[in-house]
Amino acid sequence: MTDKPKSNNQRPQGVSIPSEPTVFIKITDFERTRLPLPPYLVAHVQILAEYRGLPGWYTLTMPETEWIPVEMVQKICEVFRQVL
Questions:
Q1: Rounded to 5 degrees, what are φ and ψ at 83?
Q2: What is the domain count for the chain?
Q3: d(CA 24, CA 3)
Q4: Cα–Cα distance between 19 and 16 in angstroms, integer?
Q5: Contact at 8 Å (CB) between 61 and 45?
Q6: Residues in contact with 22: Cβ distance below 8 Å, sequence separation at least 6, in sequence order
Q7: Terminal CA-CA length for the chain
Q8: 52: alpha, beta or left, given left = phi > 0 and alpha = psi -120 to 50?
Q9: Closest among 21, 63, 24 to 46, alpha carbons compared
Q10: Tens of pLDDT, residues 26-43
Q11: Which domain range does residue 29 map to?
């Protein structure tokens, strides 16, 4: 884990991180996909945080090896923002 001040600057306002954080790391290999998705890898690095008194996982980084899944998620988020 990076030093506390640096991690505090990277999280949204209102999200608190405990002094002894729990970190979750997951690497997924999407070997079999359907068109238009090529096979790709994704890694999640998340930290257990608290927002408005409720615990939850805050994503520090989620790199992917292909641009298509990233673009698809961005489009889905755009639709949700318009609906909500």
A1: -75, -40
A2: 1
A3: 17
A4: 9
A5: yes
A6: 47, 48
A7: 34
A8: left
A9: 24
A10: 888 888 877 777 788 888
A11: 4-83
pLDDT tens for the 84 residues of the chain, in order: 444 444 445 667 888 888 888 998 988 888 887 777 778 888 888 889 998 888 988 888 777 777 777 777 778 888 888 876
Residue 54, both tokens: 């409720």
| Look-up of token digits 């989620």 | 62
DSSP-assigned letters across all residues of the chain: ---HHHHHHHSPTTEE--SS--EEEEEEEE-S--TTPPPEEEEEEEEEEEETTEEEEEEEE--BS-HHHHHHHHHHHHHHHHH-
